[in-house]
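Practice problem: predict the structure.
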Amino acid sequence: MSGTLLSTGVRYHNLPQNYIRPQSQRPQLSQVVSQPVPLIDLGGSEDEILRQIDEACRSFRCFQVINHGILPETMRKVTEIAREFFHLPIEEKMKYYSDDPLKKMRLSTSSNIRKEKVHNWRDYLRLHCHPLEEFVNDWPSTPSSFKDVVSTYCKEVRELGLKLLGVISESLGLEREYIEKVLLGDEQGQHMAINYYPPCPEPDLTYGLPAHTDPNTLTILLLDHQVPGLQVLKDGKWIAVDPHPNALTVNIGDQLQALSNGKYKSLWHRAIVNSNEERISVASFICPANDAVIAPAKKLTSEETPAIYRSFTYDEYYRRFWSRNLDEENCLDLFK
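Answer:
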C-alpha cells in the first residue's frame, strides 16, 4: 500500500488483516432487505411535499428527491471528475493526504485512521465548501476542471439544502425560517466528502463505512445508481437503497434530531463494498455555523414532552464527534 490509500490501482486478492471485522460486526449481507425509500417530487404541490417530507422523516429518516433543481449533467460531471481524481497517479494524490480529522481540506482513507483498530474500505476527499472563495484555492487543481465542476455543484446543493431546511421546519409546525435562523443563516457551514470505494476482495468481511449517524443537520447524497452500496436502518432491519436515476438522497443528521426534540431522528446508515466494481458517492453536509446554539425548539417541548437534549454549540458537538470512533454509541446520547 502506497501511503495508506487504497486507490493505488492495485487489485487486492485478499483483504488485508486490518480491514477484517470481528465476526459479530460483519455486514450479514444475506439479511439485508429491499424496500423502496420514499421518493418525493419537489415539483409537486406545496401541501403534498410537506406531508410526504413529514412522513418520510418520521418513518424512514431519509428520502430521495427528484425535480430538485440540479441538472443531471451537473451531477454526471461531478461523478466523472471524482472518478478522474481517484484514478490520478498516487504521487499526485498524496500531495493532498492528511490523517488529521479536523483539517478542512484533506484526502484520507477509512474514517479516523489514527484511532481505529479496524479500517474501512474507502478513500475520500474532504472539502469545506462555504464560503467558497475562502476554500476553493486549496482544492485540487488536477484534473484541471475539478474546481470549476465541484464549485458549481456545491452552490446548487447549498440552495437545495436551504430550501429543504425551510420545508422541514414547516413540516415540524415551526415557521419556515426557524431552523435556518437557529443555525445562523448564511453562516451555516457546508462540507463535502467525495467517497471512493475500490473493488474489495471480500465484501462480507468489511465495510466501506460502518453504521453511523451524521453529526450535521442534513446530508445530501449523490449516489452511483449503477453500483448501489448505501444501506439504511429501519425498524431494526438493514434496507438496501436503490437510487432512483437523477434523484438525490437526503438523510436526517444529529442536529435535526436535537432541534426537533427527537420528533425526527437521525438516520443510521452504512456503506457496503463490491467485489467487482468501484463505487463513487458524493456526500454534501449542510451544517450549523460553529457558534450556533442547538437546543430543542421551545414550540416542540411541553410538560408532557420536556427537552431531551441540553443546549450546546455545534463546535462542541463536532469536536466530540471526531474524538471518537465512527461506530461507537450515538454521539447525541452524550448531550442528553
